[in-house]
Here is the input.
Amino acid sequence: MSRILIIDDDEASRQFAESCLRDAGHDVLLATDGEAGISMAASTVPDVVITEELTPGIHGYGVVEAIRANASLSGTRVIVCSMKSYPTDVKQAENAGADRFLSKPYAPETLLQLVAELTGAALPSVVVDVSPSSLKTGAFTRDQMLFNMTATRSTAVGARLRVKFWGTRGSIATPGTGTVRYGGNTSCTEVRFGEHILVLDAGTGLRELGNALLEEFGTRPMRVHIFVGHTHWDHIQGFPFFTPAYVKGNTFMIYSMRGAGKPLERVFRGQMEADYFPVVLTDMQARLRFIELRKPVQIGPVTIRYHYLNHPGIAVGFRIEAGGKSVIYTSDHEPFHRTKPGAAGEKEEHKVTEFAKGADLWIREAQYNEEEYKAKRGWGHSTFDDALNSAAEAGVKQLSIFHHDPLHDDAFMDGVVADLRARARENRWTLEVDAAQEGQTIEL
Ligand SMILES: [Zn+2]
Ligand SMILES: [Zn+2]
Here is the structure.
């Protein structure tokens, strides 16, 4: 019988795996987040580690990499399991060094068979080239993070949360006469509270925001916190054109999850390599700190929490709270129950709705109508109905859909807004509904 470590924050699925394995006579160990799982694996040297993909703190791919980087765990087999099962996720699990990918929910026999397969046969040892030091690149230690939190703590008297959309388009920039009002730049939203400046996503809209910041600050140094939900092109492509990053004395903190296969900093460095761009990341004269999220972030009086979304690869949404108000920002997300119909998918989606619960404003990705969605199932995006229904369920005051599809011009979007408002009225929902427009500001 084998020693098996289960790393999963979801109690029901952890208990399910635990009882399947215990009943079969295995010795089972449990951890509820990535960091605890990694240290437990190091101290107990299990035969098999079964890690959920979306574990709090360090995600499942990070767990796999840490295990592969630990020479004393060279005999440990790793299974990544997930409610998501986009081909990208399966591939990324394999790239990180996992032996198998297990799609949730699964039958007990499937799990037991997999464990038997991994432990029974004399498998050749897997050689994975992961340097242990690479795990630390770009990540703040706990002490540094705490220092950062306390050093910037201050109170903003009478400040209000202000939101401005600089990029509202999804997938690719779509300039032209048909997109003048709703906007052609890709995802970028500015959120301010007093002196604190946050930017959500670094799509092409970031270029104009950069110019506006330069005008506002003149020669004064600026400090800006950029939160990136995931690093697909349309969410990072504006960064090389963000002029303030080339100015010495400025500081930019860039927060996101560690990539599924590489550190956050390397993803940003990659898009500026010579094959793609004439200037490299290190030519930027500002101070850039890349912070891989493991827990909520506190910037003065502003708290930023994050939650995993259903999108190929690792993607998160943010909840920003300050001065008694809250903004939710969830880009690229296909409701879990759309790709995993049934109770398990609905439960996972309910966690997303809970994350948005009672917010003053939910900036939420919605890209298709129900007809269009039929051909786009599994692409990782929501429909307009998904957005409206979940906003109503979460009891938010205001919904602003964004990440508009490149095929949807202003006239089409006007129709979408009118339709969503009519549906909200029919259902007697009190929430305000809108579609984000480039240049629009919202004060909470
Ligand atoms: Zn996107
Ligand atoms: Zn995406």
Observations:
- The domain at 3-135 is CATH 3.40.50.2300 (Rossmann fold).
- Residues 252 and 274 are 23 Å apart (CA to CA).
- Residues 170-171, 232, 234-235, 331-332, 403 surround zinc ion (ligand 1) (CB under 6 Å).
